[in-house]
Structure formats: C-alpha cells, structure tokens
Task: structure prediction
Amino acid sequence: MTAIRRVLLTGARGQLGRALVAAVPDLGDATSTDLYAPDRRELDLTDLPQLRRTLRDFRPHWVINAAAYTAVDQAEQEPEQAFLVNAQAPRAMAEVLAAMDQPAGRLLQISTDFVFDGAQGTPYGPEQSARPLGVYGATKAEGEAAVLALLGSQQRVHVLRTSWVYAPWGRNFCLTMLRLLKQRAATGQTLNVVADQVGSPTSASGLAGACWRILELREQQHLPAILHWSDAGAASWYDFAVAIAERSLELGLLEQIPAVLPIPTSLYPTPAQRPSYSLLDCTETRRCLDLYPCHWRKALDTVLQQVQAAARM
Ligand SMILES: NC(=O)c1ccc[n+]([C@@H]2O[C@H](COP(=O)([O-])OP(=O)(O)OC[C@H]3O[C@@H](n4cnc5c(N)ncnc54)[C@H](OP(=O)(O)O)[C@@H]3O)[C@@H](O)[C@H]2O)c1
Result:
C-alpha cells in the first residue's frame, strides 16, 4: 500500500519555493508526496485566520515555510508587515500543528544568516544566540524562537538557516549583477561592489535538496532542531560579482564586461545594516544529512548555464 505524505509549501513562487517544486523526491512505491503549494493569492500569510483554516483542512504531515518578507531594506520602513509574515505567521502555523495529532505534523522553518550580527569573524554554530542588526533579521529570529518554543519539545520542528540564496529565477544578487554588468559595459562605466561583507552564496536548488533530505531522514531518525545549510566556500559580494562577470563572459552570456571595483560598505550605505561576516557552520548538518554541498563557484556555473539555456528558449 502506498503511504501518502501531505506537504504544505508556502512561498511556492519564490526562489526556494520554485526549486522545491522542481525537485519533489520520488520515494518509490512506498510513499507518495501530496504537495499543496499555494501562491500568495491563494494563501496570504498575513491573513492568519485563513492560514489556520488551511492547515486544519489540509492536515499536513509537513509544512515547509519558504515564504518570507525578504526585502531587507524595505523591512526597515515596514516593520509591522515583516513581523506579521516572518514571525506571526510561523507562530500561527506552529500553534495549529501543536494542537494536531492526526497526523502530528512537523514544520520546516527556513531562516537566515541575518539573525547574526557578523561581529565574531568566525562561522556561526547552530546553537549560538541570535543577535540581528536589522528588522528583517529580528523578525526572522522572532519566528525561529516562536516555532521552537511551540514545537521544539515535541521534536516537531526544524529551523534551517541559510545564506545569500540565488537561482536562475526571482530577485537575487546574481541576476541583478548580470543586468548591471551588461548596462555598465554598454555605457563604459565601472561597477563598484561591496568587498567587506563576507558570506556563502547558496544556490536555491542545492538548498531545496537539503530540505527534501530533512523530510526524508526525519521520518526515520532524530535530527537537531536547528540546522545550517549553505554552499561550500566563502566570498565577499565583490568576489561573487567578479566570478559572475568572468563566467558569464566565458559562457557568452555577456559580450563584454566592465571593470568591477571593490568598495567598502561605507561607500554603499543601505537602510538596513548587514552582517560583515555571516558564514554558517554547516559541519554538523552536513554530517547528519550525509549531504555535502558543492563549492559556490561550481553552483554558480550551473545557475549561469541555466540562465543561458532559458535565454536561448
Ligand atoms: N534570499 C536570500 O538571500 C535568503 C538568504 C537567507 C535566508 N533566506 C530565507 O530563505 C527563504 C526563502 O527565500 P527566497 O530567497 O526563496 O525568497 P523570495 O524569493 O523572496 O520568496 C519569498 C516568497 O514568499 C512569498 N511571500 C511573501 N509574503 C507573503 C505573504 N504575505 N503571503 C504568502 N506568501 C508570501 C513571496 O510571494 P510572491 O511570490 O507573491 O512575492 C515569495 O513567493 C526565506 O525564509 C528567507 O528568509 C533567503
């Protein structure tokens, strides 16, 4: 007999959401995944009564909460909206799941390196205390704390922190750089990129693989409540931009590239302060999942090839 695993995915049209939908695992005959992936029009997380109703009706074995208010700078002007989506909605999900026992649904809450302030200069371990610098990070940290408090003792929640997510689709640094590199090359201008913020670029498809792996493994064994996942290696935004430029030129995505120059954060002020060093220590998660990411340069190559293939279509 085939067991059905019901999975509710939020944020299905976002970078990670699209990668998750594209990679629903085939678990063979034993289990089939019934994925319900409503977009914002079908399930708006700011409508908490609707959110609660949807969970009670669908009775998920898992909720993957990949939806978030991710506009880091805009969040400084809209803290209530960011708080509603990033903290209150996950809390409501956890409350409904905690009260449900048939099935005893679990939550995979996606979170961010921006819950840390980046001041320690070494990678952050999963158990380190959050100390966010801006509204986005603060609301994500509140969401983490709420779901862990409600579901942690029943071991029905995992918070998966990640960093610098990008994909061939959506709004992200890689696609923004491609646009700016093209523009600047055409007008003979240089492109200045911040060189004193360091993190790990992470491809949405690798992250999606880690998410599905958590669901599969958790049904058989214990996993830590807080997990960290990013692609291997570290880079500044400047390093990442240079790699995007060079590889895009090689692939023929760009015909020419402008000079890319490193600048300090002080020359590119933004409404939200960002951590200067937000590497996540992923050692334990990789070991538990028995899953090892590729280096960010290799992942970038794959993403750029997908961008190229899409441009040809
Ligand atoms: N992007 C990064 O660099 C980064 C880094 C670290 C962690 N993360 C975390 O990773 C997760 C996935 O991020 P992502 O990069 O995939 O983000 P994304 O591309 O911005 O997607 C976010 C998704 O959330 C949806 N959403 C926003 N407000 C909503 C609401 N009120 N109701 C329903 N849906 C709503 C968006 O809907 P629309 O499609 O309608 O806009 C979108 O589909 C998030 O938890 C984020 O905090 C991201």
Notes: The domain at 3-168+202-231+279-293 is CATH 3.40.50.720 (Rossmann fold). The first strand starts at residue 3 and ends at 10. Residues 10-11, 13-17, 40, 44-46, 66-70, 85, 110, 112-113, 140, 162-165, 170 surround NAP (CB under 6 Å). The first helix runs from residue 15 to 22.
